Amino acid sequence: MSRARQIAALAASEPGGALAWLDGGAGRGFVALEPDLEVVADDLSALPTIEALWRAEPTLPWFGWLTYEVGTAALLGRPPTTASLPGLVLRRYRAALELGARERIHGDACAGAELLARLATATWPWGQDWPLGPVEALVAAEDYRGRVRRAQEFIAAGETYQINLTQPFVARWLPEWASRPVAARAAAVYAAVQAATPASMGGLLAIEPGRPCGRWAISNSPETLLAIELGAGEDGGDLARSWPIKGTRPRGADPGSDRAAQEELQRSIKDLAEHVMIVDLVRNDLGRLARPGSVRAPARPELVTLPTVHHLVSEVRCTLREGWTLAEVMAAVFPGGSVTGAPKRRTAEHIERLEQRARGIYCGAIVALLPDGLRCSIPIRTGVADAAGLWLQSGGGIVTDSDPEAERRECWDKVRAFERS
Predict the structure, then answer these.
(1) Gyration radius of the chain over CA positions
(2) Which domain holds residue 169?
(3) What is the pLDDT of residue 100?
(4) Which GO terms describe its biological process (predicted)?
(5) How many Cα atoms sit within 13 Å of 377 on the Cβ side?
(6) What CATH number should be reported for the domain holding residue 329?
(7) Catalytic, out of 223, 274, 355, 410
(8) Catalytic annotation on 246?
(9) What is the mean pLDDT of residues 324-328?
(10) What is the pTM for the complete model shown?
């Protein structure tokens, strides 16, 4: 059995603890099971305490999440709102297995050996069929088009330049899966998605610790909010990098149409303008933390091809100034500009008016604090699985010349990874 299948089998078996599986596609991934400490908060005030614990014992990894709403509350300088999920959950694990070509254990060796033993004995409890029915939009098509037009009215009034507008979806469990544990359903979804459309920042996380776990976060995200590598920057400083995504086309049905979709995206003045706007925002965010003159961004974005879509992506990097803190980093970059728009503060206010529902982990951050630095994804292509189904959101950047129907279709293109024909 492959390592990925072992991890999925362990998750499906109601393992207790609080399983965290961060999968890096072809890159760096981690799996952990037994936390020895959990910090839960409704705002970001716990970050200094978490950072002190992390730096005091850097060999013990931390995994968890921040919701989009805890970020916007801090951004807008107001108390957090009541939500179905805590705004901040970070767990310190006794051990984690780093995945990849050269596996290794971080943390306590005995705890690492226990994790390896549990993976080795994990067995997949059921067949390998897909557990979800079709994805359904929870907002009527004309309603979403109307929201796009209202966003454009804010832009025309000079309130903002770009608004990342999302809409909700749900895929309900097939009847034959309804009696199985939610853990098994979530593991089956993530195992299939991870195999078919691997993502550089994918993940499966237990939302509640213990057994049974009734809610799971399932992420198929390709986007990195921030990666910090200690000592890898200029003159031995700490290197910070972000990879904002803006600009999307669905994959073509054949090589010719797929190549045409790539070329259309790369030539699109509208998509390039959207992309440059967000890259400038990220450059400004990182500039608040950077050594003077160290911020770098490419002149043009790269084309990145995923199993269901093509994207425009740029790497923005800098060397952090000495003495940076985790709280300062999050204040500067979170929530990510690609999932708000520009300018960030005012646009976040308009998003609340237009969407009228919490995003939760979606568009927040999935966080890993590691011995050699940290990494945070932006959990796009992400949903929460519970006893009723998989609850998703999807969106895109709205600008003055956006076509409302094209924007609606783009939302669908981005949730295709969670559909099976």
Answers:
(1) 21
(2) 3-418
(3) 85
(4) L-tryptophan biosynthetic process
(5) 28
(6) 3.60.120.10
(7) 223
(8) yes
(9) 97
(10) 0.94
Q: Which of 195, 148, 185 lies closest to 384 in space, CA to CA? A: 185
CA distances from 325 to 77, 329, 363 (A): 19, 6, 22
Which structure tokens are listed for 346? 């005012």
Which position among 246, 355, 410, 414 bears the catalytic label? 246
The secondary structure of the chain, three-state, reads CCHHHHHHHHHHCCCCCCCEEEECCCCCEEEECCEEEEEEECCCCCHHHHHHHHHHCCCCCEEEEECHHHHHHHHHCCCCCCCCCCCEEEEEECEEEEECCCCEEEECHHHHHHHHHHHHHCCCCCCCCCCEEEEEECCCHHHHHHHHHHHHHHHHCCCCCEEEEEEEEEEEECHHHCCCCHHHHHHHHHHHHHHHCCCCEEEEEECCCCCCCCCEEEEEECCEEEEEECCCCHHHCCEEEEECEEEEEECCCCHHHHHHHHHHHHHCHHHHHHHHHHHHHHHHHHHCCECCCCCECCCCCEEEECCCEEEEECCEEEEECCCCCHHHHHHHHCCCHHHCEECHHHHHHHHHHHHCCCCCCCCCEEEEEECCEEEEECCCCEEEECCCEEEEEEEEEECCCCCHHHHHHHHHHHCHHHCCC
Q: Which residue has the tokens 């089956």?
A: 188
Helices 141-156 & 344-355 angle (0-180, nearest 10): 150
Whether residue 105 is predicted with pLDDT greater than 80 in this model: the reply is: yes
Residue predicted with more confidence, 124 or 191: 191
The structural domain count of the chain equals 1
Contact 277, 352 (CB under 8 A): no
Percent of the chain with pLDDT over 70: 98
Annotation marks residue 270 as catalytic: no
Where b means 16+ CB within 10 Å and e means fewer, 309-335 reads bbbbbbbbbbbbeeebebbebbbbbbb
Residues 6+ apart with CB under 8 A from 118: 10, 15, 33
pLDDT at 26 over 70: no
Alpha-carbon span 355 to 411, nearest angstrom: 14
Q: What is the pLDDT of residues 291-324, one digit of tens each?
A: 999 999 998 999 988 878 899 999 999 999 999 9
